[in-house]
Amino acid sequence: MSGMFVHNLRLGARSLRKNPVLTALMVMAIGFGVAASMITYAVFRAVSGDPIPQKSSQLFVPQIDNRGPQYNNGGEPPDALNYTDAVALMKAHQARRQTVLFAVRLSVLPEDARKAPFKVPGYAATGDFFPMFDVPFQYGSGWSAADDDAHAPVIVISRSLNQKLFGGANSVGKEIVLDDQQYRVVGVTETWDPKPRFFDMFSGHAYSEPSQVYIPFNRAMDLKIETAGNNNCGGGGKRGDDRESWLRGQCVWISPWVELSSATEVERYRQFLASYADDQRRAGRFNWAPNVRLRDVPGWLEYKHAVPPESRIALVVAVGFFVICLVNTIGLLLAKFMRRASEIGVRRALGASRADIYRQFLAEAGMVGLAGGLLGVVLTGVGMLGVGLVFEPEIAHLARLDLSLVSLALLVAIAATVLAAFYPTWRAAQVQPAWQLKSN
Fold first, then answer.
1. Does residue 66 share a domain with residue 40?
2. CA 1/CA 262 separation, integer angstroms
3. What are phi and psi of 177, to 5 degrees?
4. Which is higher by pLDDT, 214 or 386?
């Protein structure tokens, strides 16, 4: 069996060498089609994956309408909470784990006085942030609930920042200065940057640079650290004249998350949200019916349109281009195979079966597909350099030519070419030996 396969490959290679121009056209058609598809698929794969598959059905975003129906978008509550509601949800502690967070951008003062301070992105959050989102640690861990309650000056830093400040050594227990405030390092995270960054879709940081620091939410409030994310005051919201009036106002800027491990817990928390909103109505703060939402990670990403529409459009266009390339390849293969009708007639007259013709020509098509796939891989690598011309830079850099993409490109090229060759091969196998012998 293997000997016959090798024999068919030799026959196919000999046939392809007889007409190099036609062979080159087929290889180029497959190569360009595969490259276009793989480049757009690489982007689509990066932005459409589940960023936390092991827990995406257990993590939820609570939403509460604090503005009223006249200021809502399609009846939906705001995408974040104001300070009053965020603190109330945390104090109620109706979930097994819960956190509130907002983006910060702080200035790091290196120990070496010769080095200039530099800004780093991060988050003010609570200690539950780390176990909720399965944040991996290189050294230490996140801070405790007691640290949250004590407004402790503790910090978790990233592996890259630890490398920059401490040369990669275990820095747990050491001190660093951010915005002229001293913090004690309690943990160093491993490289961790889920994409899209589901827990901060509100601030538009879904594909932005990785977070470098994490500080306690209560400590950040004590230090009056401003948010580096969105601050949405809505159509009827007011920023206020000072920080206190802003905090007590209706501007939303804090992202809440809760962990709920069963359908019963989810329903109980949804009822709690509705009850809380109704309490605010009875207290005179709201004058509309409770309007709340509780979305898990997949539902939240869909609601926030995490997958850019241009990536879907580009993928559809690229697949369409690939189909056109395959149609052209079918025509080229049909012309090539039918030109060999006399050869096929002689082989059939000498005892070759239609199955033998199928095996030979499909092996030849497989070789074209392999060559086209290899060309497609090269073109995909080149095309990755130009992804930024179509997509936003923070999305474009996510597209990578890794081993899985190379394997997929080769598999698609070979499989598609072999499938495309079935009709030309079927036509070639129908050649009547007697007619060919007479005509020649």
1. no
2. 55
3. -115, 125
4. 214
How many whole angstroms from its chain centre is CA 379?
23
Q: Same domain for 190 and 319?
A: no
φ/ψ of 125, rounded to 5, equals -150, -175
Domain span at residue 369 reads 2-50+308-439
Residue 335 CB coordination number (10 Å): 12
Residue (of 280, 241, 238) closest to 71 by Cα position: 238
Q: Are strands 292-296 and 59-64 parallel, antiparallel or unpaired?
A: antiparallel
- Clarify whether residues 133 and 215 are in a common domain: yes
Q: How far apart are CA 231 and CA 173, in angstroms?
A: 34
- Residue 214: predicted pLDDT: 98
Structure tokens at 102: 């907002």
Q: What is the per-residue pLDDT for 436?
A: 46
Phi then psi dihedrals of residue 429, to 5 deg: -70, -15
What per-residue confidence (pLDDT) applies to 425? 78
Pair of tokens at residue 415: 């499989």
Same domain, 317 and 280: no
The total number of structural domains in the chain stands at: 2
For residues 315 and 357, state if they share a domain. Answer: yes
Could you say which of 258, 288, 303 is where a domain stops?
A: 303
* 155 and 72 belong to one structural domain: yes
Tens-digit pLDDT profile for residues 62-89: 999 998 888 887 889 999 999 999 999 9
- Average pLDDT of the segment spanning 244-250: 84
Q: Which of 303, 331, 353 represents a domain boundary (last residue)?
A: 303
Check if the beta carbon of residue 129 is closer than 8 Å to that of residue 186: no
pLDDT digits (tens, 9 = 90+) for 180-199: 899 999 999 999 989 889 99
145 with 286, same domain? Answer: yes
Taking CA atoms, 438 is separated from 343, 345, 357, 418, 432, in Å, by 13, 10, 20, 32, 10
